[in-house]
């Protein structure tokens, strides 16, 4: 009797249909695929970014001496000159011509190529792209440079972490140019005036030497642009080697 009651009290198990099993498998596969894709993108940026860093170190040694400056030049502005810097020759399209260093971004070193084509922005040998119509490093006007926020090494992933007063260094064959970060701005993709000779004032003749860095915003989206502005502090002769304060930040002092 008890056995019969137990048997009657049991609810029959629902058999999983082929459709429900397939649905669960697809959901699981989707979650795994998204996780794997995210991991791949993060890993890809780390690997490609490392390759771009190595390429920058190699190219920097081709531009000129990169050994640290003399001990007595350890003060931030000790070796900087503020007179007219040497004229930088215009580079050919896609040609590498400078290296940018941003200590705030974790020992950041990237090669700057001429022109904002995908060939430059996606390159393992470059990664940063010079707006061809903008000024040369140290030249009167606006030296404007673009870089990916994410993907292809993501050089400007952390551009929003710059703080007022941070130094940005640009090494060319003729000089080391030193800029100081001023502020961020968020603009739509159509705001081309950010790379005008005087940023955001396209009708105003250049009255200073500026650096403008542009990238996408928010991350993984081309919906807007994140802009970082800096002003030129001065320059140091290429033969003098890497500015001592930069060498110290990179652990090469």
Defining key terms:
single chain; 253 residues; alpha+beta; Sortase, Chain: A; eight-stranded mixed beta barrel; 4 helices; 8 strands
| Rg from alpha-carbon coordinates | 26 Å
- Given the C-alpha coordinates, what overall shape results? globular
**Based on helices, strands and strand pairing, what is the structural class?**
alpha+beta
Give me the CATH architecture, please. Beta Barrel
SSE run: HHEEHEEEEEEH
The termini sit apart by: 90 Å
Strand order of the largest sheet: 1-2-3-4-7-8-6-5
Q: Can you put this structure into words, describing what you see?
A:
25% of the residues lie in helices and 26% in strands. With 253 residues, the protein is α+β, with helices and mostly antiparallel strands. It has a single domain (47-250), classed as Beta Barrel (Sortase, Chain: A). The protein has an eight-stranded mixed barrel. The longest helix is centred in the first third of the chain and has 46 residues, at 18-63. The model is unreliable at 25-40 (pLDDT under 50). It has helices spanning 2-9, 18-63, 118-121, 244-249, and strands at residues 96-102, 108-114, 127-130, 141-147, 167-171, 175-187, 209-217, 224-237.
Q: Topology, please?
A:
Layout (H helix, E strand, L loop, with lengths): L1 H8 L8 H46 L32 E7 L5 E7 L3 H4 L5 E4 L10 E7 L19 E5 L3 E13 L21 E9 L6 E14 L6 H6 L4
Parallel strand pairs: 2-3, 4-7
Antiparallel strand pairs: 1-2, 1-5, 3-4, 5-6, 6-8, 7-8
């Amino acid at each position: 009797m008890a056995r019969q009651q137990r048997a009657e009290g049991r609810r029959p198990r629902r058999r999983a249909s082929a459709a429900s099993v397939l649905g669960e498998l697809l959901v699981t596969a989707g979650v795994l695929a998204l996780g794997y894709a995210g991991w791949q993108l993060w890993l890809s940026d780390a690997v490609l970014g490392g390759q771009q860093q190595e390429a920058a170190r190699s190219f920097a040694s081709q531009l000129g001496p990169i050994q640290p400056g003399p001990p007595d030049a350890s003060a931030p502005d000790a070796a900087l000159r503020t007179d007219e810097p040497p004229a930088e020759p215009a580079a050919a399209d896609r040609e590498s011509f400078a290296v940018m260093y941003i200590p705030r971004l974790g020992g950041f070193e990237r090669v700057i190529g001429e022109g904002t084509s995908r060939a430059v922005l996606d390159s393992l040998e470059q990664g940063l792209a010079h707006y061809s119509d903008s000024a040369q490093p140290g030249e009167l006007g606006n030296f404007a440079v673009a870089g990916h926020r994410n993907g292809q090494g993501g050089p400007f992933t952390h551009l929003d972490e710059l703080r007022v007063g941070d130094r940005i260094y640009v090494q060319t064959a003729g000089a080391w140019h030193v800029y100081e970060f001023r502020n961020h701005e968020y603009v739509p993709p159509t705001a081309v005036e950010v790379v005008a000779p005087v940023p955001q004032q396209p009708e105003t003749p250049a009255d200073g030497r500026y650096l403008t860095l542009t990238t996408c915003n928010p991350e993984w989206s081309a919906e807007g642009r994140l802009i970082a502005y800096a002003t030129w502090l001065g320059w140091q002769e290429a033969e003098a080697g890497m500015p001592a304060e930069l060498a110290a930040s990179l652990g090469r002092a």
